[in-house]
Specification:
mainly alpha
Length: 225
């Protein structure tokens, strides 16, 4: 009896930890998605640096999640409250507003998309040119304290299910077409993946520049959220 009494709480505690880990993974699915994307990026023949970058971002997000949980357990607010977060947030928002409204910033952005659009796909110049603003945006967003979403921005259970179903369906469609190709490294018009569908758009200078402009605008939009 004594052994059972001693082990049962341990088993319940382990089960609770496992359930908590699964719940956190379901609430924050970005990390496993990045790991899977990096894996399939590598086996489909894309440059190793692309998959490695996805793994690195997943690792950074995982470490940040661990840091935030430790702060919550120790009673330190994870959203940056109680420090100079309001001042930092104000400066951040002013900088973003300036970037959006400044004619100089618009000219720099226009020059960027025109010049980078001339680079060959999957080359080191275009990889570095895309990595630089992406890393800057991630670094700025990481310094921005987390804010609770407004009531009209909250997504209910039905909304979560709809978005999850959409992303899962898209992922399964992409994965099915990938395995139906002649090989993992050879695309097929009969079973096109998203990369194959994007080839005609990104094959031209104008297409690459327009896509880069949309990517920059969407990134700026995300920084404001």
């Amino acid at each position: 009896m004594g052994v059972n009494d001693a082990t049962e709480p341990d088993l319940l505690g382990r089960r609770a930890k496992a359930d908590g880990a699964i719940a956190r993974a379901l609430r924050e699915p970005v990390i496993p998605v990045l790991v899977l994307a990096g894996f399939f990026d590598l086996i489909s023949g894309d440059p190793v640096v692309h998959g490695t970058l996805l793994f690195t971002v997943a690792l950074a997000l995982g470490l940040d999640a661990i840091r935030r949980r430790r702060q919550e357990r120790s009673g330190v607010p994870a959203d940056g409250s109680g420090s100079d977060a309001p001042a930092t947030s104000t400066l951040f928002r002013r900088a973003v507003a300036y970037v959006r409204l400044s004619p100089v910033a618009l000219m720099v952005g226009l020059s960027y998309v025109v010049i980078v659009g001339t680079f060959a796909r999957y080359s080191w110049p275009v990889s570095l040119a895309v990595f630089a603003p992406a890393a800057l945006g991630v670094g700025v967003a990481w310094q921005e304290p987390q804010r609770p979403p407004l009531e009209h921005q909250r997504i209910g259970r039905s909304g979560v299910l709809v978005w999850a179903a959409a992303f899962v369906s898209l992922g399964l469609w992409e994965l099915t077409n990938l395995f139906l190709q002649p090989s993992l490294t050879r695309g097929s018009q009969a079973h096109p993946t998203i990369s194959v569908l994007m080839n005609p758009v990104l094959a031209t200078h104008a297409g690459r520049s327009i896509f880069l402009a949309a990517w920059l605008a969407f990134g700026l939009f995300l920084l404001e959220r």
